Amino acid sequence: MSVALPAVDIARALTRIAHEILERNGGPDSIVLMGIPTRGAFLASRLAALIAGIEGREVPVGTLDITLHRDDLRLRPLRALVPTMTPLGGIEGRNVVLVDDVLFSGRTIRAALDALGEMGRPKTVQLAALVDRGHRELPIRADYVGKNLPTSKGQAVKVHLSEIDGVDEVLVENVEV
Amino acid sequence: MRHLLSTSDLTYTQAIRILDTAQEMARISEGPVKKLPTLRGRTIVNLFFEDSTRTRISFEAAAKRLSADVINFSAKGSSASKGESLKDTAQTLQAMGADAVILRHSASGAAQRLANSHWTSGSVINAGDGTHEHPTQALLDAFTIRQHLRVGTGDLRGLTIAIVGDILHSRVARSDVHLLSLLGAQVILVAPPTLLPIGTSTWPVQMSYDFDSVLPLVDAVMMLRVQQERMSDFFFPTAREYSHYYGLNADRLKKMKPTAIIMHPGPMNRGLEITAECADSARSVILEQVTNGVSVRMAVLYLLLAGAPNEDGEITK
Amino acid sequence: MTDYLLDGGVLPDGKAVQVLIKDGLISQIESVVSTLATTNLQKISINGCIVLPGFVDLHTHLREPGREDSETVESGSRAAAKGGFTAVSAMANTFPVADTAGVVEQVYALGQATGLCDVFPIGAVTQGIGGTALAELGAMADSKARVRIFSDDGNCVFDPMVMRRALEYVKKFNGVIAQHAQDPHLTKDAQMNEGLISSKLGLKGWPSVAEESIIARDVLLADHVQSRLHVCHVTSSGGVDIIRWAKARGIQVSAEVTPHHLLLTDDLAESYDPIYKVNPPLRTQRDVMALREGLADGTIDIVATDHAPHPAENKECEWQAASFGMLGLETALSIVQATMIDTSMMSWSDLAVRMSTAPARIGGYADHGQGLKIGSTAHLTIVNPTRAWKVDRDLVSSRSRNTPYHGMEFPGSVVATFYRGIPTVLDAKLVSAAHGN
Questions:
Q1: In a domain? residue A75
Q2: Which DSSP helix (H) or strand (E) runs through A112?
Q3: Cα radius of gyration (chain B)
Q4: Both B156 and B113 in a single domain?
Q5: C200 and C231 inside one domain
Q6: Which domain holds residue B128?
Q7: Is C129 left (phi over 0), alpha (psi -120 to 50) or beta?
Q8: What is the pLDDT of residues B64-76, one digit of tens each?
Q9: Based on the domain organization, do C182 and C228 belong to the same domain?
Q10: How many Cβ atoms are within 10 Å of A37's Cβ, its own excluded?
C-alpha cells in the first residue's frame, strides 16, 4: 500500500480544477456542480467553496445518486439509495460539472449521465475526477483530472477524505488475486 | 429480504429503509422523466385471484416505472374444484420465468403458502391475502403519515393513530397494527365489539368502542371500508346505526386536532363510514395515499429484486 | 392353522409371560406355558414387548365407496393392522353415504374379504347425512353388518328433534348415536380454532363453544330419553367438563379423543400448511392438557383416530381451499404412549382399556376387547415401547400421505399384530400372506 497523493497534493489539484472549470465556462454564472455520492459529493462541495473563494460568489451544488441507473445491479448485493439533491435552480440549460473521486471503467459516469437526464436537460455536461486510473470500458473521458494514476487492474485505488475518513489521501493497494 | 408477506416480518431497520427508498422513488416520480432502467429484463407477474383494480394498477405502474416486464394474470376461483389451483398457476408462471409474483388472493395465508412452497423460486409480494395482511398498503399508510406529520424522515414515535371500523375482516388493519407500532406510533382500534377480533388485548394497541372519546387524541384517523354484507351476519344492526356511532362526519371532524389527517385505504363507502365532506376535506390525504402507493411499491420492488440474490438478503453499500 | 408361541412378552401390569395362541384363540398365558403337542407351532420372540389386546378404532374414514383415490377398505385395513388395530369402524360419509343396509353390507364384506382386521360399518343417522330425515337405522342394525353405531360424522345432527328421535329409536337394538358436535351456525366457513392465532392469521374462527353447546344439549337429550350418546372427537376443556358433569349425573354418555388433539395445538396453523387443518380444529395447549386429564381419569372413554385420508391435491393448496383431516391409524399408539404413558398420566393397562376394551364395548363388538382372556379370539397387539421411529409420509400404508407427523420421532411402536390368531404385522412390517378368510 502506498500513498499516491498526500493531502497537500489533493488540495493543490482541487484548486487547479476550480480554476480550470471557471476558465472553461467563462466564469461562474452557468455552472452547476453535481457530486456523485459518497466522496464525489464532498469533492463537489470543496470545489464550490474554492470557486466561491476565487469569485466571491456561490455556485449551485447538488448530489446525484446513480444506483437506480447502474448496469451491474444484478451482479452485486443490493445497494441502499442515497438521497439525490437537486441544486438550486435545477440543471436545465446549465453547464453541469459531474464530480467523482475515481474515474475507472466509466460505467458510473454512464449511469450518472442517465440519472441527470431524469432531472432535466443541461446545456453541457463535463466531468471532474480527482484521480483517473485508466482501464476505461466505455468511450468516456474526464474534462478535469486531479492526477493521472497509472495502475494495473489488480490494484485498488482508495480515496480518503477528511469529511468521513478523517484524513485526505489517495492510496494504491495491491489486491490479492 | 426475499419476500414481503407480512409487516410482522419486518424489522425496524427494514421498515425505515423501505420508507426512505420510497422517498427517493417519490422524488423521481415528481420529475419530468418517470422511468428508470433499474429492473430492465426482470419479469414481474401480477397474479390476482381476486379483483382489485386499484392495487393491481398501482403495482403495475410501480413495476413499469422501474422498466420491469409486467404480466397480468387474473385467475378467478381458488381451489382445485373451482378451476386452476394456486400450485398449477404458480408452476406455470415459474416455467415462464417470473422473477417475482405479486399475489392477491381471497385465502388468508396464500402468499406465505406460495413463498414456502417449491412452486416458484421468485420473490413473493403479498398484495392482500384474505383477512390476513396487506403489507404494501400499511407501508403507504406509514409513508403518508410520515410525509405529513414527520416531514418525511425518521419514524412515527409520539403519534397516535386511530383505525376505525371492521378490524375483524381487515387485512389493512392487521398490517397497519404491526407496522405503525413497530415505527413507534400508538395505535387505537375503534370498532363495535363484534368487529374486533378475539384476543386483540394481546396486540400492541389500545382499544375503544367509543369513537367520539378517541377523536381528540389522534393525529391521524384511518377509516376502514365497511362491507354491506356484514349486516346480514349480525355484526351491526343497520347501516344507519353504524354510521351514527362509527362514521366520520363533519361534527366528528371538528373534534379532531387541527393538524390531524384523514385516511382511507379505499374504495370508500361514502355515507357509511365516511361522509363526502370529510373525504373531500382539506384534511383528507386519501388521494395522496394512492400516489404514495406507487412510490412505496417501487421501493419494495427495488429492494426485493434489484440486487443479486443473496442468502441473508441484507443490504450493502 | 399355525399356532404361535410368543416368548418374552410382558403383560400391561409388568408380568413377564409366554403366550400361546392355538386354533386362533388365546390358549395360555403363563410364565412358562406347558407345551402342548401341536403339529404346527411357530415360536416368536417378543423380548420385552408389551402384550396388549388388539386395538379397536371407533372412528375411521376408509373412503370406500366413492373416494377410492384417497383410501380403500383394503389400504385402510393395512394401515389399521400396521397401527395395531384388529377392528375399525368405517365412517358413513362415503359416496354413496352408508345410510342403507346395502352400503353397510358392502363395506363389511370388503373388510372380511381383505381379512386384515374387522371393518364394522357405522351407519348414517340421517339420509345422505343431510340432517333432516332419519336413515333406515333398523335395517342397518339387522343387516349382516350388524350396525350399532350411527353417525353423520362430518356433519352435526343439528336439529334437536332429529337428534332426540335418533337417540330414542336406536334403543330398540341398543345402538348409540355418535355425534359430531359442531353448531353449523357458529362455524360457518370456519377454518381453525378461534383464538389469538386465528385473529392473527385472519382465518375464520371456530369457537370451542360451537362444540360445547351441542355436547351440552345432547347429554341432556340422552338423559331425557334414557339412551346412549357417544361424543366424537372432543377437543376442548369445556367439552371435557360437560361430559364429566354428565357422567357424574349418570347419563349414558361416552366420549373419544383423537391422538392429534392429545398432541398438536392451533399455533401450527401459523405455517398456513393445511396438513394441520382438521375438523374439529386443533385447540390450545390448555385444551390439550384438559383432554389428557380427561382421558386419564376416564371422563373420555376411548382414543379414536378420526383417520381421514385425503389425496395430495386436497392439501397442496391454500388453507381455505384444503380439506379437513389427517391420517391417524399408523401413529395412534405412538402418540398415546408419548402423551399419556411416558408422561405417567396413564398405565399400559389403562391404554388397553381406552384403545381396546372400551371401544369394543361401546360399539358392541363382542369378539373384540376381551382383554387377554383365555379362550377368547386372539386379537393381540404387541408394542415395543423403546423402539423409537421417525414418521415418513412416503412409507405409510395408507393410500394418502396427509400425516402431520412427517419427520417427527416417537418413542415406541407396534411391532406385531395378531388378528384372529394370525399375524398381520411382524417385525413392524405387514405380513403379506395374511390375507383372506
A1: no
A2: helix A107-117
A3: 19
A4: no
A5: yes
A6: 7-133+293-305
A7: left
A8: 999 999 999 887 6
A9: yes
A10: 20
- The CA distance from A86 to A95, in Å, is 14
C58 and C179 share one domain: yes
Q: Report in angstroms the alpha-carbon separations of B168 from B176, B207, B230, C182, C410.
A: 13, 13, 11, 22, 39
CA atoms within 13 Å, Cβ hemisphere of A158 = 12
Percent of chain A's residues with pLDDT above 90: 81
Q: What SS3 state is found at C270?
A: helix
CATH code for the domain in which residue B261 is found: 3.40.50.1370
- Rg (chain C; Cα; Å): 21
Q: How far is CA B125 from CA B67, B133, B172, C196, C200, in A?
A: 18, 11, 15, 25, 19
Strand partners, C435: none
Give the range of the structural domain holding residue C102, as residue numbers without chain letter. Answer: 54-363
Sequence-distant (≥ 6) Cβ neighbours of residue C380 within 8 angstroms? C6, C19, C21, C26, C51, C52, C53, C54, C86, C372, C416, C417, C418
Same domain, C149 and C288: yes
Query: Which chain B residues in 138-177 lie under 8 Å from chain C, judged by CB atoms?
Result: 171, 174
pLDDT of residue A71: 86
Domain count, chain B: 2
Within a domain: B313 = no
Picking from C363, C394, C418, the residue at the C-terminal end of a domain is C363
pTM: 0.91
Reported confidence tier of residue A177, pLDDT bands at 50, 70, 90: low
pLDDT at B233: 83
- Ramachandran angles phi, psi of C41, nearest 5°: -105, 130
Q: Are residues C315 and C339 in the same domain?
A: yes
Residue bearing cell 415528481:
B30
Do C138 and C78 lie in one domain? The reply is: yes
Out of C334, C363, C392, a domain closes at C363
Number of domains composing chain C: 2
Q: Which three cell numbers stand for residue C95?
A: 359416496
- CB of B211 within 8 Å of a chain A CB? The answer is no
Record the cell numbers describing residue C236, joined without a space. Answer: 376442548
Residue A76, in any domain of the structure: no
User: Does B182 lie in the same domain as B52?
Assistant: no
Whats the size of chain C, residue-wise? 437
- Does the residue A103 lie in any domain? yes
Q: Does B91 touch chain C (CB under 8 A)?
A: no
C104-to-B129, C109, C122, C152 alpha-carbon distances in Å: 43, 8, 8, 14
Residue range C22-44, pLDDT digits in tens:
999 999 999 998 877 677 899 99
Least CB-CB distance to B108: which of C271, C313, C320?
C320
Residue ranges making up the domain that contains A165: 2-69+84-174
Q: Which residues of B touch A79 (CB under 8 A)?
A: 306-307, 315-317
Mark whether C62 and C118 lie in a shared domain.
yes
ipTM above 0.85, yes or no: yes
Interface subset of A 80-139, CB within 8 angstroms of B: 80-81, 83-84, 114, 117-120
Q: What is the predicted pLDDT for the residue at A176?
A: 66
Chain B residues in contact with C319 (beta carbon < 8 A): 107-109, 113
